[in-house]
Amino acid sequence: MSVPGLVVLAALATAPIELRWGADAEGGAPFLFEEPPGRFQGFELELVEALAARLGRTPLHVQGPFAQLLPLLERGDVDVVINGIEVTPDRERAYGLTRPYWAGPERLTVRSGDTHAPSTLADLRGRPVGTLPGTLAERMLRAAGADVRTYDGGQEDPYRDLLLGRTDAVLLEAPVSLYYGELPGLRTLPASMGETRYAVVTRRGDAALQAQLDAALAALIADGTLPRILARWGLWTEETARVLGVSTPSGIEPVELERWRARASAPAWWRGGGAGAVLGALGRGALITLAISLASMALAILLGGMLALARVYGPRPLQLLALGYVELFRGTPLLLQLIVVYYGLPEIGVRLSPWVAGWLALGLNYAAAEAENDRAGLLSVPGAQMDAARVLGMSRWQGLRHVVAPQAIRVALPPVTNDFIALLKDSSLVSIVTVTELTKTYGTLAAATRDHLGLGLVVAALYLGLGLPFARLSRWLEGRLARHLEVRG
Amino acid sequence: MSGLAVAGLSRSVGMPRRRVLDDVSLEVAAGEVAVVLGSSGSGKSTLLRCLAGLERFDAGSVSLGALRVGPSARSPLLGQVGLVFQGVELFPHLRVLQNCTLAPRLRHDSGAERRALELLGRLGMGDRLDAWPQALSGGERQRVAIARALVCQPAALLWDEPTSALDPERKREVATHVEEVAARGIPQVVVTHDAELAGALRARHFALEKGRLRRVDAG
Questions:
Q1: CA torsion, points A310, A313, A316, A321, in degrees to nearest 10?
Q2: Chain B window 163-202: which residues touch A at a Cβ cutoff of 8 Å?
Q3: How far apart are alpha carbons B1 and B156 in whole angstroms?
Q4: Which residue of A211, A254, A295, B187 is most buried, as measured by CB atoms within 10 A?
C-alpha cells in the first residue's frame, strides 16, 4: 500500500465521530444553561466534553425538552442523555445506565418565617409540596402521602411558588436546591432526606458505548477531572466521594457556584452589554417561528382546500374520507399528533427530521381547520351559481375556479387569518421535537437570566409583531374582495 | 337556425321513484316561442334543467338541430342552450361586461367582447358596463342575464319565471325581450305562471301538470 493511502486510512481511523448528547438548556444551572445567549455552560457540558475527548469523539448538543429526552434517545436522535437523569430501578431495566457521576442528598426547602414548616418526610403527609416531574423526589413525596405539585416550566418555578405560599415545602436533589432554592425568604434544611445519583443514559442495546463511557468515567475519576468539575460547581458531596470511591479534592474553590450567586446582584440583561445578544437570540427564535408557521400554513391551506372540495363536490366515499380526516385531526390534540409523528412513526420505519415532523404535524392539523373554513365558503355560494356557469358552457373546474371560488374566499378568509395567528402561537409546540423557536428560546433565556417578566414582555411583543402584519393584510384583502358588495345603485 | 325538439322525455326522482316528467314531447321551431304554464311542483324546473343539460333524464330525447341527446348523456347540451334563471344568477364578483364575457373568454372566443358590447348596448346597458350586479335594478340585472346568455350564441333559449323578480311596470318589458330574441330565429321555451306574460306573448301555450304536458290553445 502506498504511503498516501496509509495516511488517508490513518486519518479516517482517527476522524472524530460525533457524540450526540441530549439535554434541555431550559432546565438551567448547574446542569446546562445558555448565558450569555450563544454560550452554553454547566457542569454536565464540562463532563460531556471530557468524556467525548476520552472517546475520541466530538460532542454535539441536541436540544430537547426534558420530558422528551429519553424518547429522543430511543428514537436514535441522540447517543446519550446527560441531564441530571437519576438512577431508578425502572430506568436501569429500560436503558443502559453508566456508573453514577454524581451522588448526593435530597433536600427539603421551606419558607424562612414559617413556624409550622415541615422538617421531615413524615411531616409532609397531606401538605402541598412542590418538586419537578419524574424525579426521585416526586416518588418519595407520593410515598410520603404529600399533596404533590410538579412543575414543567423550570427548576426555579417550585421555589417561586413556595415563596408565594402556594406550597409548604419543596423537595429536590441538592444541585437544584443549591442553585435555585437559595432565594431570600427560603431556607434549605441541612438534613438529607434520602440519596440520589445521576448517571449517563444510553440505549439498552448500546452495550459497547455504555462500556466505553464507563471506562472513560473511571479514567476521569482516577485522574481527578470529574472531582475537579464537581468541586468547581460546588456539587461535591460525601455521597459522591463514597460512590466514586475517591477522597474529596483539596484546594478547589466552588468558583462557578459563587459566580452564579454573584449574578443575583448583577445588572439585568438589558443594562449590561448582553442586550444585543439576548435580542439577537430572540430574533432568531422569532424567524424560526415565522418560517415554520408560514410553511405549515401553506400546507394547511393547500390540503384544506382539497379536503373541502372533496367534501363538497367529491363522490360519497371521498366525502367520507375527507370528513374522517377532519374529525380525526380536529378532534385530537396537536401535541399528541406531534409526538406520534416524531416519536411514534419511527416505530414503523418512518423517520422524519425535526423540521419536517414539526411542519407536517402543524400543517396536517391546521388543514382540518382550513378545510372547514373553505367548506363554509363553498357552501355560502348558492348552487345556482355553478348551474349558471355550467349552462354558459364552463366546465365544473372552470365554474369552481372562476365563479364559486372567488366568492367563497371572501367568506373563508377572515377565519383563515384567525387560524394563522393561532398557528403562530401553536408553533411553540415544535420545541418538543427539538426545534428551538421563539417560546423555547424565551424559556432558555429566562432560566439563565432569571428574568421571566421582562423577557416575557419582549417575546409577547415579538409574537404580536409577527401576527399583526398578517391581520392587516387580511383586512385589506377582505375589503378588496367585498368591493362588489359596497356599491349601491 | 333550426329548432328544438323534445320527444318522450321522462324523469323519475327519489325513493320511492316519483315521476317528475312523464312522456313530455314538444317541438319549437326556429324563432318560435312555447309558453309552459304550471304551478310549482308541476315539473317545470326539472323540464328546464333537462333541456339545459343540468339534469339527466330516464327516457326520451332532446334534439337541437343536428344534435340529438338521449338519456344518460347530459353534457352535450351544456353550453348549447341558454337559460335565464329565475334568480337571474349574475356573478356578483364580476362587473356587467365581465359577466357576459367570462364563459366565452374561457373558450378563447375572440368575438365575445364585441358581441357583448353590441348586445348590452341594444338592451340599454351600454353605460353600465363597469357596474357591479349589486348596483343594478332587477330589470337591469335581467337584461344583463339575457345578454350573457346570447353572447354564447345558444341554439335555444329557456326562461324560468322571468317576471317573478320584477316590478309590475318592468314585467311588460319581458315580452319585448322574448320577441327580440325570437326575431333572431332562436327557439324559446318560457316557463311561467304569470298569465299576463303568457297572454302578451305570441306563442303556443302548454300546461304542465304532474309531469304531463298538454297543449292548451292554438297559438
A1: 10
A2: none
A3: 10
A4: B187
Interface A-B: count of C-beta contacts within 8 A: 77
Cell of residue A236, nine digits? 461535591
Contact A171, A148 (CB under 8 A): no
A484–B79: do the CB atoms touch at under 8 Å?
no
Distance from C-alpha of A181 to C-alpha of A28, rounded to nearest angstrom: 13
The pLDDT tens digits for B143-202 are 999 999 999 999 999 999 998 878 887 888 899 999 999 999 999 999 998 888 998 998
- Contact of B105 with chain A, judged by CB distance below 8 Å, is answered with no
CA distance A406 to chain B (A): 7
Q: Cβ contacts (< 8 Å) between A384 and chain B: which residues?
A: 85, 87, 89
Tell me which chain B residue has its CA closest to the CA of residue A393.
B79
Phi, psi dihedrals of residue B203, rounded to the nearest 5°: -160, 165
Q: What is the pTM of this model?
A: 0.76
Residues with Cβ within 8 Å of residue A395, at least 6 apart in sequence? none
- Residue closest to A149 by CA, chosen among A135, A481, B28: A135
C-alpha separations of B17 from B56, B57, B58 in Å: 15, 13, 12
**Residues shown for chain B:** 219
Q: Given an 8 Å threshold on Cβ–Cβ distance, is A489 in contact with B136?
A: yes
Among the partner-chain residues A382, A390, A485, the one whose CB lies closest to the CB of B54 is A390
Q: What is the pLDDT of residues A267-325, one digit of tens each?
A: 677 776 678 888 888 999 999 999 999 999 999 999 999 999 999 999 999 999 999 99
For CA atoms B132, B134, B140, B142, the dihedral sign is positive
Interchain contact B149–A (C-beta under 8 A): yes
Q: Which H/E stretch holds residue A453?
A: helix A452-481
- The listed range with the strongest mean pLDDT (A6-10, A247-251, B69-73) is A247-251
Q: Which chain A residues are Cβ-neighbours of B94 within 8 angstroms? A: 484
Cα A91 versus chain centre, distance: 21
B78·A391 Cβ contact <8 A: yes
Half-sphere exposure of A257 (CA within 13 A, CB side): 20
Q: Please say whether the beta carbons of A41 and A33 come within 8 A.
A: yes
Contact, B217 vs B36, CB < 8 A?
Answer: no
**Chain B positions in Cβ-Cβ contact with residue A402 (cut-off 8 Å):** 102, 106
Residues of B in contact with A479 (CB under 8 A): none
Q: CB of A154 within 8 A of CB of A193?
A: no
Phi, psi of A71 (to 5 degrees): -55, -40
pLDDT one-digit tens code per residue, A381-410: 999 999 999 999 999 999 999 999 999 998
Cβ separation B107–A393 shorter than 8 A: yes
Return d(Cα B174, Cα B163) in angstroms, integer. Answer: 7
